[in-house]
Amino acid sequence: MAKIISIFNHKGGVGKTTIAINLAASFAYLGKRVLLIDSDPLGGATSGLGFNRYELKKGLYNVLITDNDINDFIKETSLENLFLIPSTPLLSGAEIEMLALYKNSHSRLKNRLDVLKEDYDYIIIDCAPGIGLNVNNLTASDLLVIPSKSDFLSKEGLRETLNTFERIKKSYNNDFEIGGILLNTSRNYKANLYIEKDIYRLVGDKVYNTTIPKTIKIPESQLEGKPLIEYSPRNRATIAFIKVAKEVLVNE
């Protein structure tokens, strides 16, 4: 039975797409069958896995708006065990169309993913900042992984994300849980350490032990359309993502 994990923070620029791609790839490397869903209309995860979103005719938009077989919209990637439902330009209008088409539009993705739960070990959802489609994403999810940096605005985004988590859990998804906060940061200044301490005070033991380090290999791998495990398997960020994946596995 697949575990569905949303990678979400209200704030942009905290590394959601990088984490979604490389956590999914790390699970695949560890022998798990993984589906990555690109729920960001900008399509970073789609591009980061080597697809040109402007050339794709089918993707998450079609999953949400049509009743066609969801397997028709799943792409194989270059990495064994890793599959993708891509983002296409039409995705930006999906939320409005769902409101007109479906009475309980907030649970549309959850209902569509039910048929896939026996086919995958993990389904990872790369979320855009803000709300938008994320009500659907969070309603469908079992776990929330929150990327954060050690700066003031990221900490404020974390607060808002925790508030959204509580609202979704109370209103739509009683079984929803926080998997953890993943620090995607460099600790170069005292201010970073102070903010990090504030994050620990805010969420207690929900911070993963592993921190994702900065490395030029991350943007390079995205330009090449490959996850780090393929592009630079011995890089320290690659090793960190595998450690995080193992933390998730242990904590289930």
Q: So, CATH architecture? A: 3-Layer(aba) Sandwich
| Portion in strands | 5-15%
Distance from N terminus to C terminus (CA atoms, Å) equals 13 Å
Work out the helix count: 11
Q: Please identify the structural class as seen in this structure.
A: alpha/beta
Rg (C-alpha, Å)? 17 Å
Report the helical percentage: 40-55%
CATH domain class name = Alpha Beta
- Uncertain runs: none
Total individual domains? 1
Adjacency order of strands in the biggest sheet: 3-4-2-5-1-6-7
* Largest sheet descriptor: 7 strands, mixed
What sort of overall outline do the alpha carbons produce when their principal axes are compared? Answer: globular
Question: How do you describe this structure in short?
Answer:
The chain is an alpha/beta fold and 252 residues long.
Can you describe what's shown?
- This protein has 252 residues and is α/β, with parallel strands linked by helices.
- The chain has a single domain (3-251), classed as Rossmann fold (3-Layer(aba) Sandwich), CATH 3.40.50.300.
- Helix content is 43%, strand content 13%.
- It has 11 helices and 7 strands.
- The chain has helices at 16-29, 44-48, 60-65, 94-101, 108-113, 134-140, 152-171, 190-203, 217-224, 228-231, 236-251; strands at 3-7, 34-38, 75-76, 82-85, 122-126, 143-148, 177-183.
- It has a 7-stranded mixed β-sheet with strand order 3-4-2-5-1-6-7, with helices on both faces.
- β6, α7 (152-171) and β7 form a beta-alpha-beta unit.
- α7 (152-171) runs parallel beside α8.
- The model has no long low-confidence stretch (mean pLDDT 90).
